[in-house]
Amino acid sequence: MSFDVIVVGGGPAGLSCALECSHSGTSTLLIEKDEIGRAKKSWEVFPQVIFDFGLEDCVANWTKRDRYIVPSHSTVDLSLRRCVVDQAKFSQIMYERGLFSLWDRTLVLEAKRKEGKVTLNTSQGKVETSLVVDASGFPAFISHSLAHRLPHTFGHLSYGVMIDENVGCFGIDDETCLHIDFALNTRFGLRPTELWVYPFSSSLLDVGIGHHLLKRDTRALGLSSSTAYDVARGRLLPLLQAEIKHHFGVEIRKGKREYYGVGKSSCDSFPCDDNLLVIGEASGLIQPNYNYGFDPCLTYGRIAGKVASEAVKEGDTSRRRLKAYKDEVKRNEILSHTTFSLGREALLALCALWGTEAMEGTVGALKKINLSQGEEKVSKMIGEKKLTFGEKLDFAILVLVEEIASLGFKPPHFSQVIKYLRSRFF
Question: Which of 126, 141, 148, 146 is CA-nearest to residue 29?
C-alpha cells in the first residue's frame, strides 16, 4: 500500500498538515498512536486563530481575563479574550473535515528510506510514501530512524489533569484563566515555570504544571527520549498536588484524563531532509512554556501541507525542494520566541521586583494596552503595513512595555525588549 504523503502524529500540526494535503488532491495517510477524538487536554489560545481556521465548535469555553500570581504574591489581572479549546473536539472536527485516510491506535515500529521512497513498518502493516511528515512530538522517532539528527536538548516537562472541582475553590470564575508563575527555587526543590487552571466550565477544570529544565536537571533526572514521559509522570504529579494544596487547600488526585508534555529548548535549524518534513514539537518550532503551541502548530502544519503537496506533484521531494517549508515558516512566523520570552520575563520581573507597592501603576499601564483590542489599536498605529497575527502581538507587547517605561518604571530586560521589538518594525 502506498500514499503520496504520510503524516505521523495526530496533534494540531499533524492534523493541519494532513487536512491541507488532502484538500490539495494529494493522497494522504495520517497515523496516530492514540484514538482520534479521545484526547485528554485543553489549550488556552487567542480567538484569532480559532476564527482563521473556523474552529468555533471546538471551543469549550470563552474566557475574558487572565489572572497572574507572580513570585512576590502580587496579582495581575489582564483583560484578555481567550478560548479554552477541547482537544478531543478539535481532533474529531479536523478529521471530519479532511479527505485523508486515518490509521489511529497505530504504532510506527520502523522507518526506512531507499531509492527515493520511505517505508514504514506499523502495527497495521507496511506502507510506502515518497514524503513522510514527522509530527510525532518530542521523540521525533521518524526523523531519527531516517538519520535526520535533531536537537535533543530538553527545555521543559509538563503534567496536567482534568478535575471535577468548582472554580471558586481557586478564587476565580469560569471566565478567568489562572496562572501562577514561580521563582526559580521553590520550597519543593524543583523549578516549576508555571501552574495553570483553565476552566472548561464552572465545575470542570484543566489543572497543570510546567517545569523548566536546566542541563544539570537532564543529567540528575536521567532524562532521555525514552524516559522523559515517565519522569514527567513521576515527578510533576506530586509537585502539582503539593502546590495546589499549598496555595488553595485543594486535594488533587490522579485522574483518568491526564497528560504529559516534553519540549525542546532549541529548534531544528533545517527541519527537512530528502523525503522528510519535520513539524510541530518534533522540530522544536513551538513554545509550549509560554502557551504558544496550538497557534503555530496549526499555521506551520498548513504550510507544511502546502509545500508537501506541491513537492509531490512536481515529483521532487528532495531536501533542497522541501527547504521551501523553512522559508515559508520564517515569512509567516507566528510569534518570536525571544520576543515573547523576554517580554513576559520583563513583565514578571517588574511585578516580582516591585511587589504590591508599585502594582497600582503597573496595572494602570496594563489596562491602557488591552490586548483583546490589540489588532485594531495596532492597525491604526502601524498604518498600511501588512502584519501577521504574531507580528501584531509582538507590536502590542512593544506598546505595552513602552507604556510601562513611560511611567518611569524600568526593570531588567526592558531595554532589550524594546530594542528587539523596534528593530522588527522601525
Answer: 126
- Give me the residue label for grid cell 515500529: 109
Question: Which residue's C-alpha cell is 475574558?
Answer: 64
- CA-closest candidate to residue 267, choices 162, 150, 410, 109: 150
User: Quick one: angle between helices 389-406 and 414-425, nearest 10?
Assistant: 140
Residue with cell 502506498: 2
pLDDT tens track for 49-68: 888 899 999 999 999 888 87
Query: Can you list the alpha helix ranges (DSSP code H) found in 249-293?
Result: none
- pTM value is 0.78
The phi-psi region of residue 137 (left if phi > 0; otherwise alpha if psi is between -120 and 50; otherwise beta) is left
Half-sphere exposure of 419 (CA within 13 A, CB side): 4
Of 353, 350, 397, nearest in space to 374 by CA: 397
Burial 26-41 (b: 16+ CB within 10 A, else e): bbbbbbbbeebbebbb
Confidence grade of residue 273 (pLDDT, cut at 50, 70, 90): very high
Question: Which residue has 505521523 as its cell numbers?
Answer: 8
Distance (Å, whole) CA 255 – CA 126: 36
Nearest to 293 by CA among 254, 334, 330: 334
- Residues 138 and 157: their CA atoms lie apart, in Å, by 11
The CA radius of gyration of the chain, in Å to the nearest whole number, is 22
Q: Which three cell numbers stand for residue 354?
A: 516591585
